[in-house]
Write a structure and sequence with these properties.
The protein is of the alpha+beta class. The chain has 2 domains: 17-167 and 225-314, BirA Bifunctional Protein, domain 2 (2-Layer Sandwich), CATH 3.30.930; 327-415, Rossmann fold. The strands form 3 sheets. Strands 1-5-6-11-10-9-7-8 form an 8-stranded mixed β-sheet, with helices on both faces. The protein has a 5-stranded mixed β-sheet with strand order 13-12-14-15-16, with helices on both faces. A 3-stranded antiparallel β-sheet has the order 2-4-3. β15 and β16 (401-405) form a beta hairpin. 36% of the residues are buried. The chain has 14 helices and 16 strands. The protein binds one RNA strand of 75 nucleotides through residues 1, 4-5, 7, 58-60, 63-64, 81, 110, 112, 114-121, 124-126, 128, 193, 196-197, 204, 255-257, 273-275, 277-280, 302-308, 330, 332, 362-372, 378, 380, 382-384, 392, 394, 396, 399, 401.
Length: 417
RNA sequence: GAGGUCAUGGCGAAAUGGUUAACGCGACGGGUUGUGGCCCCGUUAUCGCCGGUUCAAUUCCGGCUGAUCUCCCCA
């Protein structure tokens, strides 16, 4: 084989792209109803944007970025996530000047240099939304509701929602000290991953799969929230209840990116190997100013389209397949061939999906193609039909045939749809 | 960044250190010089790449690449 696609990427071919188109159109439709407008930002940005926006000590920035130097000597990075670029565009285009809340969505590829596994790719695709300009917990709830509606509408079964409040950076810093004080005496009992987490990201330690026995009596972040944070969290929950969106509180939920404040949430579903997160997000009140904008709040959400699709396929959901032609033209002989070309074109102009043979093959082979493509009709045109000014329309499911005047073909097909 | 499993045709999938690499599906052609889906016949593979062992490698060994699964982490 001469060339292979880069590791962790995929070719989406006709027959499966329809599934992607389905997900994308549903995403757009839900955003339309929620009044989120599409934003398309560059696929690469200045490296520093992600360093500042995502967080210097995150795995993404430390080891997963596709970074390169352009010919002008600038360090550029293929976007590893969507929020930083959107925030940059929000600031650069001074959308904060809009008196109303700015609500944006995006769909597109993201890039992370990782070892691929089930539901994890180097180029993957996210659908995400960001809402700027309000700290109202109702907006957090709206963001969650949009995600919930999307999953529901694509037919996903059995997904769950977990929420948490991660407070403010100051609260987290204080909690972090207390947690480390709790963990320090147990350090030697913990697994090697936990010991490294203690240095890199202590809040994640409590989520460890193997060391749970040592965590009895551990402090909880939720107990350290100040009145404002607790009130915000309560209100988010009451809005979710108001909308009948079921959720669980997961006090150990910490998101992988540094910028979250207050609300953090994840949607989960089984069916992607060892991975269960299909989407997540939260509020990021400090991010806009971190990236050089004014003090402005934001809340958002991103979901992985590959993962959602894997779960759907795993659940045996009905998904759209390749387009089937309404009619397949079978032409016999040169004169019929010429006429078939014009009929084909005319029918297509009327909006009918139509195909014909281009191999000059015999009738049997042409009908076989029509059958294989699952055409509804075969339109058979030979010298006899040409003389009569007719074409034979054969219903391939029933085998019934009828002669149709050539100039009535398109109308006949349209009424049969 | 670490580890396990794997790599044969368009697809699924056997077997084998030696001269025809099963079988199934599909595709193409024919049986039926104008009727598909059923049936019958025929055709359809430089065994991922590079190197090594050997008289001989698709088969054994090593490296590479990729897939898949898992850890870290994440969508």
């Amino acid at each position: 084989m001469a060339f292979q696609k880069p590791k962790g990427t995929q070719d989406l071919l006709p027959g499966t792209v329809e599934r992607w188109q389905f997900l994308e159109s549903k995403a757009r439709e839900v955003c339309r109803r929620f009044m989120y407008g599409e934003i398309r930002t560059p696929i690469f940005e200045a490296t520093e944007l992600f360093q500042r926006g995502v967080g210097e000590t995150t795995d993404i920035v430390e080891k997963e970025m596709y970074t390169f130097e352009d010919k002008g000597g600038r360090s550029m990075t293929l976007r590893p996530e969507g929020t930083a670029g959107v925030v940059r565009a929000y600031v650069e285009n001074k959308l904060y000047g809009d008196p109303d809340i700015t609500k944006l969505y995006y769909i597109g590829p993201m890039f992370r240099y990782e070892q691929p596994q089930a539901g994890r790719y180097r180029q993957f695709h996210q659908f995400g939304i960001e809402a700027f300009g309000s700290s109202d917990p109702g907006l957090d709830a709206e963001v969650i509701a949009l995600g919930h509606q999307f999953y529901k509408e694509i037919g996903l079964q059995g997904f769950t929602l977990e929420i948490n409040s991660v407070g403010t950076p100051a609260i987290r810093a204080a909690f972090r000290e207390e947690l480390l004080a709790f963990l320090a005496p147990k350090k030697d009992l913990l697994c090697k991953d936990c010991r490294s987490r203690m240095e890199r990201n202590p809040l994640r330690v409590l989520d460890c799969k193997v060391d749970q026995e040592h965590f009895a009596g551990a402090p909880s972040l939720l107990d350290h929230l100040d009145a404002e944070c607790a009130d915000h969290f309560d209100k988010v929950q009451s809005y979710l209840k108001e909308m009948n969106i079921p959720y669980d509180i997961n006090p150990k939920l910490v998101r992988g990116l540094d910028y979250y404040t207050h609300t953090a949430f994840e949607f989960k579903a089984a069916g992607i190997g060892s991975i269960d997160t299909i989407g997540g997000g939260g509020r990021y009140n400090g991010l806009v100013s971190d990236v050089g904008g004014p003090e402005q709040t934001g809340v958002g959400f991103g979901l992985g389209l590959e993962r959602v699709l894997l779960v759907l396929e795993n659940q045996g959901a009905e998904l759209p397949a390749a387009t089937k032609p309404e009619v397949y033209f079978v032409a016999l002989g040169e004169a019929a061939e010429r006429r078939a070309v014009s009929l084909l074109n005319a029918v297509r102009e009327k909006g009918i999906a139509a195909e014909k043979d281009y191999g000059g093959r015999k009738m049997k082979a042409q009908l076989k193609s029509a059958d294989r493509l699952a055409a509804k009709y075969a339109a058979i045109l030979g010298d006899d039909e040409l003389l009569r000014g007719e074409i034979v329309l054969k219903n391939l499911a029933t085998g019934e045939q009828e002669a149709v005047a050539l100039d009535k073909l398109a109308d006949r097909l349209l009424e049969g749809q």
